[in-house]
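Sample entry (205 residues):
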Amino acid sequence: MRNPLSLFLLPALLLPACHGNTLDFTPDDGYWVPLWDGATLDGWSMAGPGAFLIEDGALRATGGMGLLWYSAESFRDFVLKLEWMVEEAEDNSGVFVRFPDPGDDPWVAVNQGYEIQICDAAEDKHNTGSIYSFQGPTSIPTRPPGEWNEYTITVVGQHYTVQINGETVNEFDGERSREGYIGLQNHDDGSPVRFRNIRVRRLAE
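Predicted structure, serialized as tokens:
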């Protein structure tokens, strides 16, 4: 039996909130959609050398420099959540967003999308939490090597918000494409970065 009170409250909960001239963006379906099933590479494609191996419920980068990208669909405004882990502070990888179909060229993502960097031993615009080569993070609240970290990357219009383990570390306004694919970098043999729990939530204006 439906609760009459819930029927009364539901329309109010669905109304978008407005603050001055700023639009609030809300999920179009209310659900997180997993991009990786934890067992196969269905929906993903590899560009460039190297690979991602599936080990213990995670993707492990090997070789490179290459790009594993979610080729099943592109995204416009969204929130992306994923976990990553490094073995050493020098391990290098990154999360790419809003790049066009790269074919077999991983540099398409570098030159036409934005990379949210992973490398605790780098500096400023190349450090973990940076928009690679564009803007460094305000802080780097990562856990020690061997422990999992979480990225929350929110992309609305040309505004990019990066959170590490729940702390906002970067607010960046870009100028590149407003729609594109999501990908993970395998940088080199010495950077066996791992990823898991990759999920996205589309945002609707």
